[in-house]
Amino acid sequence: MKIAFIGLGHMGGPMAMNLRKAGYTLKAFDLSEEACKKYDAEGLPIAASAAESVTDADVVISMLPASVHVEGLFLGSAGRPALLDSIRAGALVIDSSTIAAATSRKVAEARANGWKPNSRKEIGWYYGNKEQFEKRHGQIVGTLHAAMKPKTEK
To answer: What is the domain extent for residue 50?
Structure first.
């Protein structure tokens, strides 16, 4: 399973390293050059951009500071293209950021270059249908959750 991990701050960096240590293939990215250098030195493969990190990813995990960052990443902003345009069909997107529910809904409902929820480019962003989500992604999410737990948790 190939994982793109975007956001290597206080929470994201250690989570990405736990996934790497658990044997997952990762490509990570952060806008902070300092964070990228730190985790590169620890053996985490760093992509040159968010778009490069999602190339061929089966799972895309984001851990960003606020709603504005999540919206800007996935929908594009300030001249940056929408990451939704780069995520392959069938990939699962997990946003672990602490954001407003309205932002999650907005990104999930976004349409960019033909992308729309539950279409041929559907990327595993579900709201309100827990059973369908668990049927399709439950095993992956459970495995990732176990790998991302801090070492102090059992």
So the answer is: 2-148
Dihedral Cα 103, 117, 28, 80, nearest 10 deg: -70
Please report which helix (H) or strand (E) contains residue 93, including its range: strand 92-95
Which tokens in the block code for residue 137?
């992604």
> What token pair was written down for 126?
């579900």
Cβ 21 vs Cβ 13: under 8 Å:
no
Residue 21 lies in a domain: yes
**Would you call 26 helix, strand, or coil by DSSP?**
strand
User: Per DSSP, what are the bridge partners of residue 95?
Assistant: 62
Band (128; pLDDT cuts 50, 70, 90): very low
For strands 2-6 and 25-29, give the pairing: parallel
Within-domain flag for 144: yes
For the segment 9-41, what is each residue's pLDDT rounded down to a tens digit? 998 999 899 899 888 999 999 999 999 999 999
Query: Would residue 154 count as lying in a domain?
Result: no
pLDDT in tens, 87-105: 887 788 888 888 888 888 7
Q: What's the count of helices (H) and strands (E) in the chain, helices before strands? A: 6, 4
